[in-house]
Amino acid sequence: MIRWFKPIVFLACLAPLAQLGWKAYNQALGANPIEVITHSTGDWILIFLLITLAVTPVRKLTGQLWLIRYRRMFGLFAFFYAMLHFLTYIWLDKFFDVHEILADVAKRRFITMGFTGFVLLIPLALTSTKGSIRRLGGKRWQALHRLIYFSAIAGVIHYVWLVKADIRKPLQYAFVLGILLTYRIVVWALPKIRAKKTATLSGRRMELPRG
Amino acid sequence: MLIKKAVDIPSSEITPKNVYLNRRKFLAGTIISGAAAVAGMSLRELAEPTNVLKDVSNYNNYYEFSTDKYEPAKLAKDFKTQPWSVTIDGQVKKKQVLDVDTVMKMATPEERIYRHRCVEGWSIVVPWVGFSLSELIKKAEPLPKATFVEFTTVLDPNHMPGQRTGVLDWPYVEGLRMDEAMHPLALLCFGMYGETLPNQDGAPLRIVVPWKYGFKSAKAIVRIHFTDKQPVNTWNKSAPNEYGFYSNVNPNVDHPRWSQAKERRLGEFFKRPTLMFNGYDQVASLYSGMDLKKNF
Prior knowledge:
The structure holds 2 protein chains of 2 kinds.
Chain A: H1 5-25, H2 33-62, H3 71-93, H4 98-107, H5 109-126, H6 130-136, H7 138-145, H8 147-162, H9 168-210
Chain B: H1 2-8, H2 11-14, H3 17-21, H4 23-37, H5 53-56, H6 72-75, E1 85-90, E2 96-99, H7 100-104, E3 110-117, E4 122-132, H8 133-140, E5 148-153, E6 173-177, H9 178-182, E7 187-192, E8 195-196, E9 206-208, E10 221-227, H10 234-238, E11 262-265, E12 272-273
Parallel strand pairs in B: 1-10, 4-11
Antiparallel strand pairs in B: 1-2, 3-4, 4-7, 5-6, 5-10, 7-8, 7-9, 11-12
């Protein structure tokens, strides 16, 4: 891929933040700016998690192998927007009231779920370097980074549990996530099913002479 | 005075056509500016600053149009509030169907500046225009059996895109106990900021019950039904464990999913503590002896 493409993608990933900043500067965030910031950063976490999870299937299905070079960046942007989302909550919503935050995390299941999704991303961000892959070993690193599945699931449930009545938008995220996870299950299960089939087929062949 | 003449003589004959077509706005404007002239109303003052009209008319929980609070302002723009009739029925002596213009002229309108607290945790201060709901109720002459009043919002899926979704069970229904409805604070409302009510704020006729969460204040009302049964309000039907019939503003009773102890007043950075009954202590006696945790 062309060398200047990566910085462009990087800047594009910052566009949602730039848009928020621009709107804030122009006082165009509407009647409840903090709510807009919270919802917008929340949306972008889910979008970046889904993009990250889409890299492997798209790469395999289209044969565009270079896509893998963007996966870490997308994943880190998911974490970046998660930090902004979390910061908005502890600062602009709770004003660093630790007592209130802890009560929220313990009592409100949608907060518990969102918090879980965020915490699960922390080790992934910390071990996102090439050095970490070397230190952990490819297999273990990969196993650890499967936490992203659970983080994304937690994120979607957080959204479903948060809305009052209109779950259409969270369900759209759930639908896309469902497809991306189903792909993994199929990829994981298909060789096993095939192996089993071959085993039974060859088993039958073995039986033939006896019959 | 000129306006009185216009009402006596068929307005189509003497009024310029554009004024005739804007009759509703014209009349309402006159009535409402009259309201501003009524002096000595204790409810005209509130120590807290009033929110700007732009916020109040561009941030609306009006699921008939959209579940996105920024959408109703656009989607309700061409909503027709004329002609509009209101059915008054059930346990009353005077069952009738009234034009909303007639309803608006039942009593002298006043401007009332109320706090408005949404169950979601934000609040606004709005100068509403209307008169006590009790004025209409008295004129309807409820029978002794009438212990509850039920309000129904118009069902018009052709013009209310939200009603084409199954997000809530349409039409929207809300209700009050008779003594709540008779409380002088409960407002029958048709204007705000000295003007007719914008469509997205519930035109042409809504109620405002300032000591309850916002969703209790039904918008675009077409029916006022007097009954001996406690109405099943739409949000209660949608999530009975989250939205009760009473839904009084109460900082001590959390919504199951979030705290109600604080609120964000639009336009303010820090959150404010939420007040019991939204600061309207004068309604406390309506609930004496009631467990407000149970009757949330």
